[in-house]
Amino acid sequence: MIGLGGNTFCRCGENSLPLKISLEHFDMKNKFCLLLGIGIMAMGSSAYAQDIIKTKAGKDIAAKVLEISDEEVSYKMYDNQEGPTIRISTGKLNKIIFENGSEYAFVEEVFSHNLPADAPLIDLVAEGNNVYIMMDDPTHSFSEKDAYIREYIPEYTPWNVVDSIDDADFILYVEVHMTERYSHVHSATPSIRRPDGTVVWKGRKQRAAPVIQNGFVAVRGVSKDIVREALMVDMWEEIH
Fold first, then answer.
1. Which CATH number fits domain 121-239: 3.50.50, 2.30.30, 3.30.160, 1.10.3470?
2. In this predicted model, what pLDDT tens digit does every residue of 210-229 receive, in sequence order?
3. Fewer Cβ neighbours under 10 Å: the N or C end of the chain?
C-alpha cells in the first residue's frame, strides 16, 4: 500500500495491478476506516503466502516447500527461510496446501498382506502391516473415539492405520472401562486380534487422570499409554 498526495495505491500480490483510491472526498474518520480496511486486506493476502503441510498426526506446518519426492518432502520453516532444510517422510503426511491454494494429496496404496488365518502375533504386528482400530466404549467417555490413538500410532509404531477391516492385517481392540467415580480417571485395556476376531494378545489395563502431562485430558493420556507402553513395550517384550 503506497500513499501519494491525496491518493492511495493498494497492491495485493506481486502480479496484481495497483488499485487507485482517491481520498479527497473522505473525511478523517472515513479515511482512517478505509486505510485500516486496506491494511487488513493486505495482511490477509500475505497470510496465505505460505505452504501448509498437513500431517497425519493433525499438525499444520507453515513452510516453504522445496522438493517433493516419493519418499520425502524437503522444506524450510516459513518464518525461518534462511534456516536449515528439513525433510519429512511422505508416509507421515496427508497433503500440502500451496500458497496459491492448490493442493497435493499423499495417497498410499493400501493392501492386506494376506496373512494365513493362524498367523502368529509376531507376523501380525510386523513392520508395515495394517491395523484397524476397534473401540468398545459403552461409557462414551472416549468422545474423540479413536482420534488420539490414530494420532500416536504413526508416531510410535511401524504400522499403517486403515479405515476398513478388509484392508487390515490385525485389529487393535480397545475395551474402555467405566470412569472411576469422583476421580475423573479413565482406563482401557488393549488387545490384538486377527481380522476374524480371534484374540492373540491382551495387554494390561491402562489408567490415566487429567494431569498437565496429557493437557488435562485423561483420554489422551490413556491412548498414549496404550500405544507407547502397552503395545510398544509390554507386547514387544512378550514377543521377544
1. 3.30.160
2. 778 767 777 888 899 999 99
3. C
How far is Cα 198 from Cα 117, in angstroms, rounded to an integer? 10
Return all residues near 20 (Cβ < 8 A) that are at least 6 apart.
7, 8, 9
Instruction: For cell 520425502, name the residue.
Output: 72
Tell me if 20 sits within 8 A of 9, measured CB to CB: yes
- The model scores a pTM over 0.70: no
Residue holding cell 476398513? 164
138 vs 136: CA distance, rounded Å: 6
What is the CA angle 21-23-28, rounded to 5?
A: 140
Q: Which residue has the cell 518432502?
A: 73
C-alpha cell at 52: 501448509
Q: How far is CA 93 from CA 143, 153, 192, in A?
A: 25, 13, 26
Q: What is the pLDDT of residues 22-60, one digit of tens each?
A: 445 555 555 555 555 555 555 544 445 799 998 877 788
Domain boundaries, the chain: 1-32, 51-105, 121-239
| Under 8 Å between Cβ of 218 and 209 | yes
